[in-house]
Amino acid sequence: MPYPNLDTTSPRRPGRTGRVKAAGAVMAAWVALLWVLEIVDATTGGSLDTFGLSPRSAGELRDVIPMAFLHHGFEHLASNTVPLLVLGFLAALGGLRRFAAVVLTIMVVGGLGVWLTAADHTNTVGASGVIFGLLGFLLIRGFVDRSAVDIVIGLVVLVVYGSVLWGVLPGDPSISWQGHLFGLLGGVLAAFLFRKERREQAPLFTP
Known about the structure:
about 55% helix, mainly alpha
C-alpha cells in the first residue's frame, strides 16, 4: 500500500484554532503569574515592592521590566486583569513571536518613560502601562499592516476601551499617567517596528 505524499519542505503555520488556543494559553498563564506574585507579595508583607520602579536612580533601571508584573494590592490587580486578558489575547492572535517583541518594547519604553519623568520618591508598579501599549498597538496595527480585519478589530477596541485614553493625562497623583502615556507610545512604536513583511501583506480591499 503506497504511503501518502507528504510535503516536508516547510512547516505549516498553525491554523486559526491553533492560534486561538496558543494566545489564550499565553494570556491565561500571564494573568495567573500576576496573581501568584501578588499573593506572594501580600503574604510576605510587601517583600516584592522593592522591584517597583523609582525614578532617576541608575540602580532602578533593572526594575523596568519587573515593575510590570507587580501591583499595589488585589484591587489594583483586579482592575487590570480583564483589559490585559482581552487586549493581550487580540494582540497575540497575530503570532506569539511578534507578540513577545511588542510586549517587550512596550515594557521598555513605558518603564524608561516612568524612570525619566515620574515624581520623586514614587514607586511605580502595575500592568496598566502594558495595557495602554497593547491598546495603542491594536488601534494602529491594521493601518500599518494594511489589514482590513485588523482595522475593524482596532475600531472595536477603540469603542470598548477608548475612554481609558484619558488616563495618559495628569490627574490623580496616585496613578502613573507617565506609565500610561509612555506605554501607549511604546505600543505605537512596536506596531511600526514589528509590522508584517510586505510579502505577507494583502491589499486592504480587492476589486
